[in-house]
Amino acid sequence: MLLRLRKGKVADKNFKLNTDFDWEYEHKELIHPFQSNEPKRRFIPSKWERLKVQKFVKALREGRMKTLEEKREEKEREREEEDNHVWDIWEDDTIVPWKPRDAPKAIPAPKRDLP
Predict the structure, then answer these.
(1) Which of 4, 26, 30, 59 is exposed most, by the fewest CB atoms within 10 A?
(2) Domain boundaries, the chain
């Protein structure tokens, strides 16, 4: 086998080198071109993409942004709390447990003129 390789022949004696081979290429539109002259910058993330990723990482670390698993767990906890919540029917009406965030600020009454 080594002698055949040194002479530039095929290693296996039974292999027929000159047989016709049928290519199954029918001028289909290919996903990847045979030759591409695309610049390197298309494969390197831009400065702005890097900054966006850093922003997301920082938000995740600070807890302002949550992963999908954390959101699912939080929803499950909220559902469990709603199921286990007991309403106090003797609760004082002056206590407001919920206030909308976008509610306008209270406007003080106008002052009267001094006598």
Answers:
(1) 26
(2) 40-84
**44 touches 38 (CB < 8 A):** no
Residue 82 phi/psi, 5-degree rounding, is -65, -40
Contact of 66 with 74, CB cutoff 8 Å: yes
Q: Which two three-digit tokens encode residue 15? A: 């292999």
pLDDT digits (tens, 9 = 90+) for 67-104: 899 999 999 998 888 777 665 555 554 555 665 666 66
With beta carbons less than 8 A apart as the criterion, state whether 11 and 5 touch: yes
pTM: 0.35
Q: Is 48 left (phi over 0), alpha (psi -120 to 50) or beta?
A: alpha
Enumerate residues 6+ apart whose C-beta is below 8 A from 12. Answer: 1
